[in-house]
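Table S2 (text version). Query chain:
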Amino acid sequence: MDYTDYQRRLEQEHGAPIEQIIRTVYIDKDLGPATGAQALGIPRQVFIHFVQECNLKTDKLELL
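Corresponding structure-token output:
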């Protein structure tokens, strides 16, 4: 599976765009890459890819 496959699967399962899904898990629920990936049932590297693609790391750091 590639990133596009994971994106399609997550968007179908959650009924939301990938940025909203990752934002909810990574920022709202305050889960890190390993636990966030586990919660979504995807590999950690895929989770990190989406965090970087959606530029969410800076948003999370602003909350600290």
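Notes on Table S2: The mean pLDDT is 95. Helices lie at 3-14, 18-28, 33-40, 44-53, 57-63.
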